[in-house]
Please model this.
Amino acid sequence: MPEIQPLSEAHVEQALQSLPGWVWTKDMLYKSFTFSDFVAAFSFMTKVALQAEKRDHHPNWSNVFNRVEIYLTTHDAGNKVTVRDTAMARAIEDVVKL
Amino acid sequence: MPEIQPLSEAHVEQALQSLPGWVWTKDMLYKSFTFSDFVAAFSFMTKVALQAEKRDHHPNWSNVFNRVEIYLTTHDAGNKVTVRDTAMARAIEDVVKL
Model:
């Protein structure tokens, strides 16, 4: 499947242009989100969880109070960044705007 | 407040007797939970989130697909384990049984 081919560095850099705050690190896309409190952070996580399940593409993520850190990688591509990750990052950005 | 006094090693060890799978590490109580899939894992997280907010005691936790790792510590006690953590661990054990 083309969507689980690792993206080239150029493709990832291009995708990052429209993904503010996301960084490419250790074969993952990473972003830290800070909210007003735990309720806001977990509400965001719930929306992301629904997107993750719908896309069958689940994040590696952690939460402490009002902060949520998300790492995206494609396990089936040998833990490399693929379009499934950039698409999920975009979906997460859309969730933030809700 | 007595509830945010760090617990002695003896007290933590005693609490752990009734908290199967929890370990005391680096001034935190830790347990890893594995579920059948992401939906089960996130459903558990939602229940834990409601307990956390109700108790105003929020975990440091992470999730990857069907696994949830939880670290409990009391920030207001200088990141030591207090009865707020052992009580939260018990509440989490109760949530698992739901």
About this structure: The longest helix of chain A spans residues 38-55. The mean pLDDT of chain A is 94.
